[in-house]
Design a protein that fits this description.
The protein has 488 residues and is α+β, with helices and mostly antiparallel strands. It is 28% helix and 22% strand. The chain has helices at residues 19-30, 48-52, 63-74, 81-91, 94-100, 139-149, 204-210, 229-235, 265-268, 320-324, 337-342, 351-356, 365-372, 376-392, 465-482; strands at residues 8-15, 35-38, 57-60, 105-107, 126-131, 154-156, 161-166, 173-180, 183-195, 218-219, 240-241, 246-247, 250-252, 277-280, 298-301, 304-307, 314-319, 360-362, 412-421, 423-424, 427-428, 435-437, 443-449. The strands form six sheets. Strands 1, 2, 6, 7, 8, 9, 22 and 23 form an eight-stranded mixed β-sheet that branches.
Length: 488
């Protein structure tokens, strides 16, 4: 039903204050629309994954080459050609847009650095940029956020959207039912609503439903990304796409004290630690190269790519020299929610984490196996085989090249690891105008989306591409929603 009375009115409602929300809100506002942002997180913890990413956004040097690269990235999961060409065009404009607002685009390195799949055609059109004279984690987000704060754009923090209000006959989206201060309020959108509320990295039910190979998975980014936009869009007739694609998994520590994962240095950094380390599954056996650098969770498989296969639970097993070498966790606030927002101060000697129970210790491997619930004989056999191969100078089982050290000096330690991800790519399907589509391909009137929620990436992902897409499709959504006639 159409509400007889609204608590608040605006032209455009933007649901989510991350990179896509910024681009949408600023674009619509500068075109003359009154804009209100609904943000689920408290003030200071907003920003979504954009705030805690590695602070790079994509700017392409050639629209033609960028389109070629995206077609190759999509591979066996193609997206419509008009989406590809629109995306490629906008990716060449990100720097221009940022500079027009007073930003200072700077390339990470030159020639292009961090190209995810250099073997694919068009790859070298990708360029990673940040704002300002130095690459500082959080500084690019500060610039994005300033564009909103310096404009008369209303922001409601701790105000999650719960329902899209739809005209029963025309199917137009008229506004939003949101929650704030323990009550619902109705926000009228005279021109339209734009969903920019991120993916479902912190929604275990959606993870089990849509992602293959992981019975559970936890975010390294914003814990407020719980997939709220998906049921809201479905309820008004939206189609979904790319729901099985995600940037992950990696292996990380997840503890109840924090909503996002903690990255273990011996796994994810190139530093050569002393001491021995392996990772085993619930059967006590190794299952892969623990130091293999995935391409945002994807690994080569028979001429294709697939998500890294990880058993659950899994355990990082290591010895006393590694325990004594320094903190097992990277304490620098360079990326990820726990490091940048919660700022957990891991102890230099790992003693606090041992006391918390995050690290398990035993005098023998057999006792350690009993503590973590794996077969003692299997774990002993696995460690003995690892030590034998290290002695021969090669990991003949899985081809690991880094940290080839014997795991032999007691006491022994274990950390339970969980699958972790940067972000999901699925959500409501959109078209080249950023309109949300029904299953028959028709747009839902006055409903748009941008960013990670329903991303264009269907298969492989180029780093910095999500924030680049946030900016590009945010601008498209902002232009088109601002051009809507006000409904009466």
């Amino acid at each position: 039903m159409i509400p007889q009375k609204w608590d608040e009115e605006t032209d455009v409602v933007v649901i989510g204050f991350g990179g896509a929300g910024v681009a949408t809100a600023v674009t619509a506002y500068d075109l003359g629309a009154k804009v209100t942002i609904l943000e689920k997180a408290p003030k200071g913890r907003h920003g979504g994954n954009t705030r805690v990413a590695a602070q790079g956004y994509l700017n392409s040097s050639s629209a033609e080459e960028a389109a070629t690269y995206l077609r190759a990235l999509c591979g066996p999961y193609p997206v419509p050609e008009e989406m590809i060409t629109t995306w490629a065009h906008e990716m060449c404009l990100n720097n221009e847009w940022l500079a027009s607002l007073g930003g200072d685009p700077q390339e990470h390195q030159h020639p292009p650095a961090g190209i995810e799949f250099p073997e694919l055609p068009g790859a070298f059109s990708s360029h990673k940029f940040h704002d300002g004279p130095k690459l500082g984690y959080g500084l690019t987000w500060d610039r994005f956020e300033s564009f909103v704060l310096e404009r008369d754009i209303a922001v409601h923090y701790e105000s999650p959207a719960r329902e899209l209000i739809q005209h029963p006959e025309t199917k137009e989206i008229l506004g939003v039912r949101a929650e704030k201060d323990g009550r619902f309020f109705l926000l009228k959108a005279r021109r339209g609503v734009v969903l920019t509320c991120g993916g479902f990295e912190n929604n275990q039910a959606l993870i089990r439903t849509y992602l293959t190979g992981v019975p559970y998975c936890y975010p390294s980014g914003s814990p407020y990304n719980e997939g709220d936009g998906i049921p809201m869009a479905q309820a008004v007739g939206a189609d979904l796409w790319h729901m099985n694609n995600f940037a992950g998994p990696s292996m990380a520590l997840k503890v109840p004290e924090f909503p996002a994962t903690l990255s273990m240095q011996p796994l994810h950094f190139s530093k050569e630690f002393p001491g021995g380390m392996i990772v085993v599954g619930p059967d006590g056996r190794r299952f892969g190269d623990e130091k293999f650098k995935t391409r945002h969770g994807k690994v080569p498989a028979n001429g294709t790519w697939r998500a890294l296969q990880v058993p659950c639970p899994m355990y990082m097993i290591f010895d006393h020299p590694l325990m004594q070498a320094g903190p097992l966790y990277n304490k620098e606030p360079n990326r990820g929610w726990t490091a940048m927002m919660d700022r957990y101060d891991w102890s230099d000697d790992n003693s606090a984490e041992l006391a918390r129970g995050w690290i398990k210790r035993a005098d023998t491997l057999e006792d350690l196996a009993a503590i973590i619930g794996v077969d003692p004989a299997a774990l002993r056999e696995t460690v003995d085989r690892w030590n034998e191969q290290v002695g021969k100078g090669a990991d003949s089982d899985h081809g690991r090249k880094l940290m080839l050290n014997r795991l032999s000096e007691a006491p022994f330690y274990a950390v339970e690891l969980s699958p972790s991800m940067i972000n999901t790519q699925g959500g409501p399907r959109r078209n080249e105008r950023a309109e949300v589509l029904r299953p028959d391909g028709r747009p839902i009137p006055r409903l748009y989306s941008a960013g990670e929620l329903g991303s264009i990436y269907s298969y492989l992902y180029q780093g910095t591409g999500n924030i680049g897409e946030c900016l590009g499709f945010g601008r498209i959504a902002g232009r088109n929603v601002a051009a809507e006639e006000e409904w009466t």
